[in-house]
Amino acid sequence: MQSSNPTLIGTAGGTFLSVLPNLHSEDVLRTILLATIGAIVSFAISMALKFFIKKYKK
Q1: CA of 6: how far to CAs of 9, 11, 15, 28, in Å?
Q2: How far is Cα 32 from Cα 27, in angstroms, rounded to an integer?
Q3: What is the dihedral of CA 44, 33, 16, 2, to 10 degrees?
Q4: Can you give the pLDDT at residue 30?
Q5: What is the CA radius of gyration of the chain?
Q6: The model's pTM
Q7: CA distance 56 to 49
Q8: What is the pLDDT of residue 29?
Q9: Greater confidence, 17 or 40?
Q10: The pLDDT value given to residue 37
Q11: What is the rounded distance in angstroms from the CA atom of residue 3 to the CA atom of residue 40?
Q12: How far apart are the first and last CA of the chain?
């Protein structure tokens, strides 16, 4: 199945515009907060694993 670029843009735009009225500011803020916490935890775990792997390889 081949789709054209305007069809993809129209579909994405329509999906975005249909979801937009259902978003509340609390949901957006909660999502931003959880994404930030997740990124910090992921970075910390990655650094800890890198430290332990380097320590035990020696």
Answers
A1: 5, 8, 14, 28
A2: 9
A3: 10
A4: 94
A5: 20
A6: 0.60
A7: 11
A8: 92
A9: 40
A10: 98
A11: 39
A12: 54
For residue 1, give Cα distances in angstroms to 4, 14, 37, 54: 10, 21, 40, 49
State what percent of residues in the chain have pLDDT above 90: 50
Distance CA 27, CA 17 (A): 17
User: Measured between alpha carbons, how far is 31 from 37 in angstroms, rounded to an integer?
Assistant: 10
Owner of token pair 């500011």 = 25
Measured distance CA(5)–CA(24) in Å, rounded: 30
37 token code pair:
């916490």
Three-state SS sequence of 21-44:
HHCCHHHHHHHHHHHHHHHHHHHH
Average of pLDDT values for 6-18? 88
C-alpha to C-alpha distance for 7 and 14, rounded to whole angstroms: 10
